[in-house]
Design brief:
By secondary structure, the chain is α+β, with helices and mostly antiparallel strands. It is built from 11 helices and 29 strands. The strands form 8 sheets. The protein has a 6-stranded antiparallel β-sheet with strand order 19-20-26-29-18-21, sandwiched between helices.
């Protein structure tokens, strides 16, 4: 029996030792008060030596501990199945607090510890995150005995690491705050405050900045987390940016598509998504294809490959991400159509636009990329036997993600091409004066042709002028674009010899 009692006493001693190791140590001055927060509302408070300390629950989940006499006592706080154990030491004078604090903060040499009256005062600038975390763990044990005047100032290597993090995400970090172009940021540390200045092109950039800062355990984004020593102030704004989206029609013969593609690849033009000029425009498609070159480069290389028929359909300027409404470019006319609402009525005239209509919405999703919803419509009215009109249309609706300054080719315009015994070409387009020269000609074999619609997004003001192909054969393309089909045919006849005109 005595052996069993000995074993039970040994187990009880081990459990008591384990519990003591798990206890939280608290120092309380004689006749002083310390407030602790166990993390739950206390249902019961037990004290091993009530002559040393007194304890009572107060508001919320806080416990008030009062030092009655010099010594040590355990304080056990319970609530249902949860509990918290404190080992409370009541000390008689501030010198003991000073000596104890020096030992606890031995690993944080930046902190200067001194005695001022009945208080221990901490001063200094802590530059390491580990040092600041150690200070925050130690201070609660001393309660009101210590006045903390320390501040956190990030070490140069911490700021350099944050700078590299921004640069890897595509931002430019500069030191001169007087000349901050969009996409450039300036980091400045003022005592316990980090100030970020600059401007970006879109809300997505702001979200990226906040995500990067949230990975730093020493920065409090909202200023409410006291465990993080530095609060953050953002002076970064989204700069209103005017975008310009240009459209160019290019007429390409099927026989020339292989030469065009080969010439682009030969000259280093990156063609994304496996774009193949000879196959991609067979049938209708709403896909888009990114071509890694600006519009001027593409037109010059196409012209050198035998593709010499192109025309600028126009361009549309609008504020990036300004609204969810489509901005409209209309090249053509408006048809007045009378709509009758009932018997005997005169009806109302409605405007029905026709011609080339481009609708665009969206904007920048970074400093050099755009996401745009684009709708292209080519339409023309056709007179019916009953003097009514039928509006023939060809449409493309797609979403593109492209890099600024690079060209996007749109598909889906294949059905604009038809074969005819008279003047053939691209129906609808050939009847619009401003586009007809590129879309109509007197031939019976135009079904061998296809139309590429090239879209060129750019920040307004950056768009370089379209350069003409350098060859003599194609150098006057834009000048020729202003002439009508009849005028160009007449000039071509005048250049023919007598025998050519005769036969």
């Amino acid at each position: 029996m005595s052996k069993k009692i000995f074993v039970l006493l040994a187990l009880a001693g081990a459990l008591f030792s384990l519990k003591a190791d798990e206890s939280e140590k608290i120092s309380v001055p004689l006749k002083g008060i310390v407030i602790v927060t166990p993390g739950f509302r206390a249902a019961d408070v037990s004290i091993t030596d009530k002559s040393i300390i007194a304890a009572e629950p107060i508001v919320n989940d806080q416990i008030r501990i009062t030092g009655l006499a010099v010594g040590k006592s355990d304080l056990h706080v319970t609530s249902g199945s949860v509990s918290k154990l404190y080992t409370v030491t009541v000390i008689d004078n501030v010198r003991e607090v000073f000596n104890s604090l020096r030992k606890d903060l031995d690993s944080v040499p930046e902190v200067e510890i001194s005695i001022n009256g009945n208080k221990v005062v901490l001063k200094g600038e802590i530059s390491s995150v580990d040092g600041w975390e150690t200070l925050l763990k130690v201070l609660p044990a001393y309660g009101a005995n210590v006045t903390n005047l320390t501040v956190f100032r990030p070490a140069p290597e911490i700021m350099l690491s944050l700078k590299k993090l921004f640069e890897k995400s595509g931002f430019k970090v500069v030191s001169d705050v007087t000349d901050l172009s969009p996409g450039s940021l300036s980091l400045q540390s003022e005592r316990n405050t980090l100030i970020l200045r600059g401007s970006v092109y879109c809300q997505e950039d702001l979200d990226t900045i906040n995500q990067l800062l949230s990975t730093q355990d020493w920065i409090s984004l909202d200023g409410k987390d006291k465990s993080k020593p530095v609060r953050f102030i953002s002076k970064v704004s989204v700069k209103p940016t005017l975008l310009d989206v240009g459209a160019v029609f290019v007429g390409v013969k099927q026989a020339d598509t292989s030469a065009v593609g080969a010439n682009l690849a030969k000259n280093g033009v990156r063609i994304a998504q496996g774009f193949n000029f000879s196959t991609i425009f067979r049938g209708s498609t709403n896909q888009s294809y990114n071509l890694g070159a600006d519009m001027s480069t593409l037109l010059n290389l196409m012209a050198e490959s035998g593709c010499r028929r192109f025309h600028r359909a126009g361009h549309l300027s609008f504020m990036s991400n300004s609204s969810n409404e489509f901005k409209v470019l209309h090249e053509g006319g408006t048809l007045k159509v009378r709509v009758y609402g009932g018997s005997g009525g005169t009806g109302t005239l409605n405007d029905v636009p026709y011609g080339f209509i481009m609708r665009v919405r969206g904007g920048l999703i970074g400093s050099d990329r755009v996401k745009l919803d684009i709708q292209i419509e080519i339409s023309t009215p056709s007179l019916q036997e009953n003097n009514d009109y039928d509006l023939k249309q060809s449409k493309v609706s797609t979403t593109i993600v492209a890099k600024l300054g690079e060209t996007v080719a749109l598909g889906g315009m294949r059905d604009m091409i038809e074969e005819s015994s008279g003047p053939s070409g691209i129906p609808f387009l050939r009847k619009i004066p401003v586009l007809s020269w590129v879309c109509a000609e007197k031939t019976d074999a135009f079904n061998d042709s296809q139309v590429l619609l090239l879209i060129y997004p750019q920040v307004a003001g950056r768009t370089p002028p379209l350069k003409m192909p350098p060859s003599a054969e194609t150098a006057n393309t834009l000048e020729e674009s202003g002439k009508s089909n009849e005028q160009r045919t007449k000039e071509a006849d005048e250049k023919k010899s007598f025998w050519q005109r005769l036969f």
